[in-house]
Amino acid sequence: MHKEFSQAVAEKIGYYVYLLKDPRNNTIFYIGKGKGNRVFNHINCEIEDATNNDKLTLIKDIGNDNVERYILRHNLTEEQAFEIESACIDLLGLENLSNKVLGHDAWERGLKSIDEMVQHYDAKPITIDEPAIIIKINRLYVRNMSEIDLYYATRHKWKVGLNRKKVKYAIAAYKGLVREVYTIEGWTKCDDGRFEFFDQVAPIDIRMKYNNKSLENYIKKGAQNPFQYVNI
Known about the structure:
The structure is a single chain. The strands form two sheets. The protein has a five-stranded mixed sheet with strand order 7-6-5-4-8. The chain has a three-stranded antiparallel sheet with strand order 2-1-3. The longest helix has 15 residues, at 78-92. 28% of the residues lie in helices and 26% in strands. The chain folds into two domains: 7-103, GIY-YIG endonuclease, CATH 3.40.1440.10; 114-230, no CATH class. With 232 residues, the protein is of the alpha+beta class. The chain is elongated. The chain has helices at residues 7-13, 38-41, 54-62, 78-92, 106-109, 114-122, 147-155, 204-210; strands at residues 15-22, 27-34, 68-76, 132-136, 169-174, 177-189, 195-201, 227-230.
């Protein structure tokens, strides 16, 4: 089994999009893009930090030498690789992968229903006036999810600091749009040290002010932090 590409191969294939597959059930669990020996580095744990994650846990469970690796497209420009990676993540669904975030520019140009497409291009950018926390639930959001499921996806569990006490509203965001707004009444510490807020749906005037509006002035392209404070 190859542990890495030779220098000659690495130089010839350029940027590529790859996938990692679990041979036990033939399930693709990760889509990535890179060059050189990026596809091997996940398995060798060379590009992981000390923090564990779903992908690394699954790789260890499968066994490093048993993970199947495939190159989906190669000899690409970096921008082409970003596009293909993003499209594949959209197609398979982030909820079915161990990727932490949607692909490059996914919130702006990624998979959308017709309603979402209209919302996206008709949505007016908002200015948030109140102390708030924007919570990106891209990994947890499901189209046509119930109000209660949206609430639970937004409320927990987050590694928030003391600034949480200054926040008045929680804004549930998916692909750059406001999906719901909640009034935060307080925070509860979970067993793992993270926090979840308890709340109620925000007053109707606040919801009308923000729901289905664009967060393009706040969510920066490529930002991976799942939440951000505003007016704190």
